[in-house]
Specification:
Layout: E1 7-12, H1 18-27, E2 32-37, H2 49-66, E3 71-74, H3 77-90, E4 95-96, H4 99-109, E5 114-119, H5 121-126, H6 128-134, E6 139-144, H7 148-153, H8 160-179, E7 186-190, H9 198-204, E8 210-213, H10 214-230, H11 242-245, E9 246-250, H12 254-265, E10 272-274
Parallel strand pairs: 1-2, 1-3, 2-9, 3-4, 5-6, 5-7, 7-8, 9-10
Length: 279
């Protein structure tokens, strides 16, 4: 069993990935964390595979080479969907994305085998969730919801406008599912920002549809990966001080990160350091 706590790098295009970090910290409070939000280049969800792969690989290298991360959790659904291979090629440590754990959680929750997925444009166009669901014998129908990230970034988490946008998106998605003869009983939140909208989403889904948060599923899978690779860390060790436990970095908008990050993390993020990863 490893005696020093592992350093886990968590990466997102912005600070929405703090929802994954939060779930990880709840499960592994004794680990040390380095979180990078590539806020200067957000959103990834409207960019090409090539650009996303370059940005994500540079971010991963920062966490491994400069922050000593021994494991990487790619909290960003878009980077997980389009750039997991590029990230794995760029760093010599185990890398876990959120797509496979999200699909696995859908498999565990679904009785009908039919699944709804909402995500960014790039994630939907990659059909990564549909493929991961198909590999588990599920049928998935995906919908891009590009307005939801800016609404969350604006802090409109319980706002009536956000509720209406969700109502329209989910209405279109469920109509499309019905037209394809699907009977979905699960909705996968395939974007880092969506867990913050969970109450509005739960209110808007048809009766009998369960909401699956890929952040929770990814954190669970990460704990298994890390414990499997380096011995158990879940209990019985000293937690580091809050200051040692978490270092946050952003490529821009440090003030906004410090201000809004606590909503995603559930407690203050502390001082966020600005890093320059190039253009
Ligand atoms: N982090 C992205 C995701 O989970 C959402 C924000 C973006 O488009 O960069 O897909």
């Amino acid at each position: 069993m490893q005696t020093t706590p592992p350093t886990i790098g968590v990466f997102d295009s912005g600070f929405g990935g703090l929802t994954v970090l939060r779930a990880l910290m709840e499960r592994m409070p004794q680990a040390r964390y380095a979180f990078l939000g590539d806020t200067a280049r957000l959103p990834y969800g409207s960019k090409s595979r090539r650009t996303i792969a370059r940005y994500a690989a540079e971010s991963a290298q920062f966490l491994v080479r400069e922050q000593g991360a021994e494991f990487l959790v790619i909290a960003c659904n878009t980077a997980s969907a389009l750039a997991l291979d590029a990230i794995q090629d760029a760093v010599p440590v185990p890398v876990l994305g959120v797509i496979e754990p999200g699909a696995e959680a859908a498999r565990a929750a679904s009785v009908t085998g039919d699944v709804l997925v909402i995500a960014t444009d790039a994630t939907v166009q990659s059909h990564a969730y549909a493929a991961a669901c198909r590999a588990r014998g599920l049928r998935a129908i995906e919908k891009a919801c590009p307005l939801l990230v800016p609404l969350v970034e604006e802090g409109w988490i319980g706002h009536p406008v956000t509720a209406e946008v969700i109502r329209i998106y989910l209405g279109e998605l469920t109509a499309e599912a019905a037209a394809c003869g699907l009977n979905p009983d699960v909705l996968v939140l395939g974007c880092t920002h969506y867990p913050l909208l969970r109450p509005l989403l739960e209110a808007a889904v048809p009766a009998g549809v369960r909401v699956i948060d890929s952040a929770q599923a990814a954190a669970q899978a990460a704990v298994q990966l890390i414990n499997g690779a380096s011995g158990s860390h879940e209990t019985g060790q000293h937690s580091p001080s809050a200051q040692d436990q978490l270092r946050c970095f952003a490529t821009d908008s440090v003030d906004k990160f410090e201000r809004l990050g606590s909503r995603f993390l559930g407690h203050p993020v502390g001082k966020v350091q600005l890093v320059d990863l190039g253009g």
